[in-house]
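Researcher: Quick test of sequence recovery. Tokens follow.
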């Protein structure tokens, strides 16, 4: 949801850098689809530049949508409450725990294949 994004959001603190590193590490292999909601001119400008360097496969996984069409695409239980769904995410804890567990499993699996 990009509704309230502005220049003040472009803070590249350690937390933001960590999030970007983690997202880049996980994408596109783990993320099958991303729906970008309420994009504004800052995102649209960045997106037009990113489209030049992203592969068609990655681009096909990302869509800019309205809230209404998001509700048509995804079950309401997986959409955050502020977008009309019923999900109350705790991304800091839930998301990172799952990502790190998947990384551990992948490392274990890669190690076993090398043997």
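Model:
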């Amino acid at each position: 949801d990009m509704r309230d994004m502005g220049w003040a959001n472009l803070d590249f603190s350690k937390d933001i850098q960590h999030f970007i590193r983690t997202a880049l590490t996980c994408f596109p292999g783990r993320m099958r689809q991303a729906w970008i909601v309420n994009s504004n001119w800052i995102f649209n400008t960045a997106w037009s530049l990113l489209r030049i360097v992203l592969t068609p496969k990655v681009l096909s996984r990302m869509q800019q949508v309205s809230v209404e069409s998001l509700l048509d695409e995804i079950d309401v239980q997986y959409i955050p409450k502020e977008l009309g769904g019923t999900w109350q995410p705790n991304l800091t804890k839930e998301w990172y725990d799952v990502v790190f567990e998947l990384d551990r499993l992948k490392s274990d699996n890669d190690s076993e294949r090398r043997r």
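Residues 108 and 114 are 10 Å apart (CA to CA).
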